[in-house]
């Protein structure tokens, strides 16, 4: 749809494994060298693994195009085969005629005869099995036995196994140790590095016939944060971002378009969408209502959002699944309650990275981060913000949000932990990769008072809301207060008047907040928690002091 608009000969970010578009990063060059070794060595297995979407299949297609004329290739793309099916597939790929009635022995004899004839003619026979992690143990053993077809000098069959990381783990099992010992070269293909994102995108655009600056440097960090550098994810996100820019008439992709595209293609917007505002009639309020529909048309995780071209259509608000801690859901439970920090503590940089990844995980936000700055930037991509503050344990109890706490150390060096929950008088924390239960006294003694939490601001929120403010954020504030019994169902409006200030002050006093009538982050967080039970919390309920 957008190709002609941007002067492209075809789609530059198709997920089809077209070797023309293969970007040869340092990793891809090394992986290709390992594949080429498979036909130059004396035989055995070559193992190439990588995460889903890392580019294994595309790399393999590039490798096939570079094979010399004397190579014969059997390519198995469906590994969920029985032993007879595998042998029959190999015969079919090598154009070996099989009799009507044949067993495994007949197939192997014919394969051996074919391989000997090919070797006598100076030809090399190569078997490639894609998605090899799906091979059964029985089939893997048969594949190993095929390498027994050999002469005195070399193996007659060269084998390449392509698979996901599970294949590496599978081959470490004792029952497959004979096969593992025959692997002569191994390589694991990882994601692109941050500084490779821009060359990767420009390479694909150039192959597609464009040298325009369609993805400015300002969005590169954002693309990396959303995809982790996985090529297939990059392709999907860039394709949707270009479509969105085309639909909006933009000459190139900007950060807002990437953010919306990420929400659509990954279905991973972790923040609960605000309900559509039921604003009263009137010119101003009608404008606000339309803005709310356009701004909050994106659907929550698990639902597909409409493409940008359909942004004018409205959709009914949906309720997302309850937010679950993504990082700690499967973590082992602490064995005992500690009255002091465990020793020794992990390195500070490792503890910091683990703490912020855990914090993002509580909100279902992808977490390719290592520090606070990266975590806050990543959170903004998904509609959340960092809240930095200081206080005591009562402050954290009132805040009632998972947080990263800075610890005070005798040597003055920083240290970090993630506070995940209150369990009675104990705090469930994560230090490095290890969960622990600390007494509140132990946490209070170790903590220096500084914390970082995540929260979701209301629509169009820029600064604390006070009398005289007029925005969509004020309309949301009125709506949330109108849902509470004590608010008396006041008419919604987008202006912050004296009546709204009174309602805010009453709410603040009931929730142990300073009663200044100004809706800042702490007030908005408590208000959202009062009307939304799905957001991450330290405890299911927080005691509220009544007047």
Automatic annotation (TrEMBL):
SUPFAM superfamilies: P-loop containing nucleoside triphosphate hydrolases, PGBD-like
Domain of life: Bacteria
Spans annotated as Disordered: 301-332
AAA+ ATPase domain span: 42-186
InterPro entries linked: AAA+_ATPase, AAA_22, ExeA_AAA_ATPase_DNA-bind, P-loop_NTPase, PGBD-like_sf, PGBDSf
Pfam families per record: AAA_22
PANTHER family: GENERAL SECRETION PATHWAY PROTEIN A-RELATED (PTHR35894), PHOSPHORIBULOKINASE _ URIDINE KINASE FAMILY (PTHR35894:SF1)
Protein name: AAA family ATPase
Record lineage: Bacteria, Pseudomonadati, Pseudomonadota, Betaproteobacteria, Neisseriales
